[in-house]
Design goal:
binds phosphoric acid mono(formamide)ester, Rossmann fold, about 15% strand, about 300 residues, 2 domains, binds norvaline, alpha/beta
Length: about 300
């Protein structure tokens, strides 16, 4: 069963097909062509243990535009592993819908869903990774650096500098950058790096990947084509907020940091953004920001993903 739980476990050929579909479906939408036969009569069940704007709306709208239907369930009603075992939920949903998507705290719940599901399972964010976000991020960089290309290896040789927390978004993005032949530079405060086991894993999956880590954000952006940041306090870390705000002081993406980057470098953020904390208004709303086209690409990336997983 072709699930989409991580970028690492998704074969390169499947990734290529997802991007090809995403760009093709976006072009058809721009031409106002209907795509309502792609997933006609198919249903996606979506389970949320955490809040969402972009992910929920992009998946629901993607199903709608592809002729299918989405059922949105909160964890309050489903109780993943609480009201009912994760395995039983997967077994029940598999007999009723054609796809299951979940946003969870513990990543293990996603792998367990996938293990027991007879229909594709999609990771809509876990504490460990956010692979759907990385698809939209790559589309946005392709729009900028290799417009018209649909194979993400066209990004090969480009450099992404991620400034901030070594978190779920950073893991998926680093993996996708590696698979595309991009250089990935991670600038975090001490103690907030990605764990060595992750780096070992990515280096074994993408031998020869240029993955650099530093504590110096200014040095990190020196050769960057894209600068990326995310919240310093992810969902579920609210009790660490004060400690994190202190640790990350100096890692804000602001005009001073941009001045140290090449003039063509663009700025990305998965959103939601905490303006005035990890990113300034001047950068978010400035000419180098691509954060809103990036958010809109979530819809197109989701359509490509769903078309490949549930349509082919
Ligand atoms: N970037 C992202 O996943 O946003 P939401 O949390 O609003 O879905
Ligand atoms: N790292 C953030 C991403 C939100 C889309 C979080 O997990 O809260």
């Amino acid at each position: 069963m072709p699930h989409f739980v991580s970028i690492a476990d998704t074969p390169s050929d499947t990734l290529r097909r997802i991007f090809a579909q995403a760009f093709a479906l976006r072009a058809r939408r721009e031409r106002k062509e209907s795509t309502r036969t792609v997933l006609l009569g198919k249903t996606l069940a979506m389970i949320f243990e955490k809040p969402s704007l972009r992910t929920r709306v992009s998946f629901e709208q993607a199903m709608n535009e592809l002729g299918g239907h989405a059922i949105v369930l909160t964890d309050k009603e489903v109780g993943l592993g609480k009201r009912e075992s994760v395995a039983d939920i997967a077994r029940v949903l598999s007999g009723m819908v054609q796809g299951i998507a979940a946003r969870v705290f513990e990543h293990a719940k996603l792998t367990e869903l996938a293990q027991h599901s007879a229909v594709p399972v999609v990771n809509m964010l876990s504490d460990y990774s956010h692979p759907c976000q990385a698809l939209a991020d790559a589309m946005t960089m392709m729009d900028e650096f290799c417009p018209g290309q649909t194979d993400p290896v066209a990004l090969s040789g480009k450099t992404l500098a991620y400034v901030g927390d070594g978190n779920n978004v950073a893991r998926s993005l680093a993996t996708l950058c590696g698979k595309c032949g991009m250089n990935f530079i991670l600038a975090t405060p001490p103690g907030y790096e990605l764990e060595p086991q992750f780096i070992d894993r990515i280096m074994s999956q993408v031998p020869g990947m240029n993955f650099e880590t530093t504590h110096d954000p200014i040095a990190a952006v020196h050769y960057a084509d894209a600068i990326y940041t995310d919240t310093w306090v992810s969902m579920g870390q609210e009790q660490e907020k004060q400690e994190r705000l202190r640790a990350f002081a100096g890692y804000e993406v602001n005009d001073r940091l941009l001045a140290a980057a090449p003039r063509h470098a663009i700025v990305l953020h998965c959103l939601p953004a905490y303006r005035g904390i990890e990113i300034t208004d001047s950068v978010m709303d400035g000419p180098r920001s691509r954060v809103f086209p990036q958010a809109h690409n979530r819809l197109h990336a989701q359509k490509g993903l769903l078309a490949v997983l549930m349509g082919e």
